[in-house]
Amino acid sequence: MPRGRYSLHDPHDHAPLGEEHFQCATGPTGWRYVAQLTSPSGEHSGSVDLTLDELGRPLRLELNAASWRVRGAALDGVTWVRTDPAGERATEGNVAAHAFTGTSPAFLVATARLLRLAPGATATRVRLVAFTAPVLAPRTLDQSWALLERTAHPTDSGPLTVDEYQVTALDTGERHSVHIAGDVVLAAPGIELEDLESPPSSFAENFPPPGA
Q1: 102-126 b/e with 16+ CB inside 10 Å = b?
Q2: What 3-state class would DSSP assign to 208?
Q3: β-strands 16-27, 3-9: how paired?
Q4: How far apart (Å, rounded) are the C-alpha atoms in residues 36 and 114?
Q5: Distance between CA atoms of 111 and 175, rounded to whole angstroms?
Q6: DSSP H or E stretch at residue 11
Q7: String of DSSP letters for 75-128
Q8: How wide is the angle at C-alpha 158 spanned by C-alphas 20 and 52, nearest 5°?
Q9: Residue 158: predicted pLDDT
Q10: In whole angstroms, what separates CA 55 from the centre of its chain?
Q11: Which domain of life does this protein belong to (predicted)?
């Protein structure tokens, strides 16, 4: 069960956004990631709770930030309910998309798991609903993902397989790299892994390949 800490910053001007203290685990029915967010001053600023099914689809999502809350799941595309800080009004949304995304590294792992790309294969297009901090406003976006390389790195506890993805925003053409090992993001724009108490989990140990 990996447990650790990410530091988050603005990918453009590198201004610090805070930290995400997380733990996650794979299992026979899916993957769960939970995290607590802190501001640059160290104050609690939100939380993430994401559960995927065995195919990588979002079974349950709950985000909290600045008293806003979003609950969502894969249902007729993706469906969510967003609640205002006063708790007086809830807004429902539904989009024909594949999954959710946002600033949490959990969403990068989730998208990679959903697509399950092969190294060198043609890039795959994916439609996602992003929730933007601090008010968790929803926005639909399209990306393409390609798995450029899969590399095994020797470690004291055995080989560590690292996948390098190229992610392209289809509305702007902006490209960036994402490095993922199992269910942990090693590096991505705006994300740095600062601490990891145990090795990443391997999805291959628990999930069948597509079409199995």
Answers
A1: bbbbbbbbbbbbbbebeeeeebbeb
A2: coil
A3: antiparallel
A4: 24
A5: 16
A6: none
A7: SSSEEEEEE-TTSS-EEEEEES-SEEE-SSHHHHHHHHHHH-PPTTPPPEEEEE
A8: 40
A9: 77
A10: 15
A11: Bacteria
The CA angle 182-131-7, to the nearest 5 degrees, is: 50
Retrieve residue 125's tokens: 């297009």
Residue 129 pLDDT > 50, yes or no?
yes
Residues in CB range of 164: below 8 A, 6 or more apart:
147, 148, 149, 150, 151, 177, 178, 179
158 burial type by CB count under 10 A (0-12 exposed, 13-18 middle, 19+ buried) = exposed
Q: Which residues sit opposite 138 in a β-bridge?
A: 131
pTM of the model: 0.93
Encode pLDDT of 141-160 as tens digits.
999 999 999 999 888 777 89
Helices (H) and strands (E) counted in the chain, each on its own, are 1, 15
Q: Determine the Cα angle at 149 with ends 147 and 155, to 5°.
A: 125
Answer yes or no: are the C-beta atoms of 91 and 79 closer than 8 Å: no
Residues 6 or more apart in contact with residue 112 via CB below 8 angstroms = 145, 163, 165, 178, 180
pLDDT tens for residues 21-46? 999 999 878 999 999 999 999 999 99
